[in-house]
């Protein structure tokens, strides 16, 4: 495996974890994990619009990075050959 693939593998793992965390931070419509986390991070009456916009942007950016890493790795990852030692 080339060093470039190792770098993309690391970026893929980091972007996957960040995307999951950012999605869980979004405020939900009811009670749940996102409501517990987001209610402690900011006051829902003051400035939540700016926080939500920035959270949306970060989520989209990490999801795009994740998708691009999948695409690049699908094109550059070495293919194995069955029967060769």
From TrEMBL:
Keywords: Cell membrane, Membrane, Protein transport, Translocation, Transmembrane, Transmembrane helix, Transport. InterPro entries: SecG (IPR004692). The keyword Transmembrane helix applies. It holds the Pfam family SecG. It is found in: Cell membrane; Membrane. It is a multi-pass membrane protein. It comes from the Bacteria. The chain crosses the membrane at residues 6-25, 58-77. Involved in protein export. Participates in an early event of protein translocation. Belongs to the SecG family. This is Protein-export membrane protein SecG. It comes from Parafannyhessea umbonata.
């Amino acid at each position: 495996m080339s060093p470039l693939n190792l770098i993309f593998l690391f970026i893929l793992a980091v972007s996957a974890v960040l995307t999951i965390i950012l999605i869980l931070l979004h405020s939900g419509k009811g009670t749940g994990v996102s409501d517990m986390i987001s209610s402690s991070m900011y006051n829902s009456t003051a400035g939540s619009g700016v926080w939500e916009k920035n959270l949306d942007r970060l989520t989209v950016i990490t999801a795009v990075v994740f998708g691009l890493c999948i695409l690049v790795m699908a094109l550059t990852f070495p293919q194995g050959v069955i029967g060769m030692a």
